[in-house]
C-alpha cells in the first residue's frame, strides 16, 4: 500500500471517534488538539499530529491576516464564481462552430448571444454592487476575524460536514423553490426573473431577484454553523455549492459532470434544464430523492436534446391527464 493511500485510510479510521463526538455535540478532540498541539511558526509540529488535509490547511501560513479577514470568504466565492463561469461563457460564444461541443448541448437550438450575456451579467453586476458589496463591508466592520486553528479538519469530518450541508440546503431550497412557484405573487415578483431563460447558460446561475440571492446566500452561509465547521470545511462547502449550482445551469450534458459521476444522486444540468423548460417539475437544486418522493420529478433530456423513452412516456401521461381534466 502506498504511503498516501495508507495515510488516507488511517486518517479516515482515526476520524470516526471525533465525528461521533461532533454528532453528540462535543468538540473535545478538536479543542484539545487546539490547545495541545505544539506549533512551529503556526504549523503542526512533525510527528505530533498529522492529518491528510494539513498540507492544504498550511497554505494559509504567511497569509493569516488575509485568510482570517471576514472579507476572505466573499472574495473567494465571488472570484471562484466568475472564474468557473468564464470557460463555459467562452464555449457558448466561440464553440458554436465546434460540432463535437454542440453534441453535448441539452437544448441545441438555443444560441447564447452577446445580448443574453449583457442582460445576465448586468443583473449579476448590480446584485454584487447593491447587495453583496454592502453585506461584505458590514461583515468587515462588525464581524470578528475568523479563528484559524493550527490543525486541519479530519478527512471524514471535512467530507461529511459538506455532504450534510448540501443535504440540508437541498431540503431548504426545495421548500423555498416550490413555494415560490406555487404562490403566484411570489413567482411573479421574485422567482420569475430567474425563469426568463427557458434554456439556461452559466450566467443564469446568479440571474436572481435580490430576495432569492439573499436567501440563497444566507442559507449557504448559515448551514455550516450547525456543525461548528472548521474554516477549511466552510470555505470548501461554499466552493462546492458554487460548483454544483453553476453545473446545473451550464446547459451542457458533459460525460464528466457530477450527475454522471454520482450514480444518479445529483441532478446536474439535464435535470435543472428540464426545470427551466417545465417549471412545475424538478424543484430540487442538487439531488433527485425529494423530487421523486414528492412526485415532482420529470425525466430529463440528455446531450443533443435527445428525449429518452421515460421522458416521452411522462409527456404522454401528462397530455392524457390534461385531456381528462
Ligand atoms: Zn435555474
Ligand atoms: Zn424555478
UniProtKB/TrEMBL annotation:
UniProt domain Fatty acid hydroxylase: residue ranges: 164-296
Keyword Heme: no
UniProt xrefs under Pfam families: FA_hydroxylase
GO-annotated molecular function: iron ion binding; oxidoreductase activity
Coiled-coil ranges per UniProt: none
Keywords for this protein: Membrane, Transmembrane, Transmembrane helix
Family matches, as InterPro entries: Fatty_acid_hydroxylase, Sterol_Desaturase_Related
GO-annotated biological processes: lipid biosynthetic process
GO cellular component terms, A-Z: membrane
Residue ranges of the TM segments: 71-95, 116-142, 158-176
Subcellular location field: Membrane
Signal peptide from the UniProt entry: none
Name under which the protein is recorded: Fatty acid hydroxylase domain-containing protein
Annotated organism of origin: Dreissena polymorpha (Zebra mussel)
Amino acid at each position: 500500500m502506498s504511503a498516501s493511500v495508507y495515510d488516507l485510510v488511517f486518517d479516515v479510521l482515526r476520524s470516526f471517534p471525533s465525528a461521533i463526538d461532533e454528532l453528540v455535540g462535543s468538540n473535545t478532540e478538536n479543542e484539545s488538539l487546539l490547545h495541545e498541539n505544539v506549533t512551529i511558526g503556526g504549523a503542526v509540529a512533525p510527528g505530533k499530529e498529522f492529518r491528510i488535509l494539513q498540507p492544504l490547511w498550511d497554505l494559509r501560513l504567511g497569509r493569516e491576516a488575509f485568510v482570517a479577514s471576514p472579507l476572505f470568504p466573499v472574495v473567494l466565492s465571488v472570484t471562484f464564481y466568475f472564474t468557473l463561469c468564464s470557460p463555459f461563457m467562452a464555449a457558448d460564444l466561440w464553440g458554436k462552430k465546434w460540432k463535437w461541443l454542440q453534441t453535448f448541448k441539452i437544448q441545441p437550438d438555443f444560441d447564447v448571444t452577446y445580448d443574453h450575456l449583457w442582460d445576465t451579467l448586468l443583473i449579476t453586476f448590480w446584485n454584487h454592487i447593491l447587495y453583496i458589496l454592502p453585506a461584505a463591508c458590514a461583515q468587515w466592520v462588525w464581524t470578528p476575524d475568523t479563528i484559524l486553528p493550527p490543525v486541519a479538519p479530519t478527512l471524514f469530518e471535512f467530507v461529511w460536514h459538506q455532504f450534510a450541508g448540501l443535504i440540508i440546503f437541498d431540503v431548504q431550497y426545495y421548500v423555498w423553490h416550490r413555494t415560490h412557484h406555487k404562490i403566484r405573487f411570489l413567482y411573479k415578483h421574485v422567482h420569475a426573473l430567474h425563469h426568463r431563460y427557458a434554456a439556461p447558460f452559466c450566467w443564469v446561475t446568479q440571474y436572481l431577484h435580490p430576495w432569492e440571492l439573499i436567501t440563497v446566500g444566507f442559507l449557504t452561509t448559515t448551514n455550516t454553523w450547525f456543525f461548528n465547521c472548521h474554516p477549511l470545511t466552510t470555505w470548501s462547502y461554499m466552493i462546492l455549492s458554487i460548483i454544483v449550482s453553476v453545473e446545473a445551469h451550464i446547459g451542457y450534458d458533459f460525460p464528466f459532470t457530477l450527475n454522471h459521476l454520482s450514480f444518479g444522486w445529483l441532478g446536474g444540468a439535464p435535470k435543472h434544464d428540464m426545470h427551466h423548460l417545465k417549471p412545475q417539475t424538478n424543484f430540487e437544486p442538487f439531488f433527485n430523492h425529494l423530487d421523486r418522493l414528492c412526485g415532482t420529478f420529470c425525466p430529463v433530456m440528455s446531450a443533443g436534446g435527445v428525449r429518452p423513452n421515460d421522458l416521452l412516456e411522462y409527456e404522454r401521461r401528462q397530455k392524457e391527464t390534461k385531456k381528462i381534466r
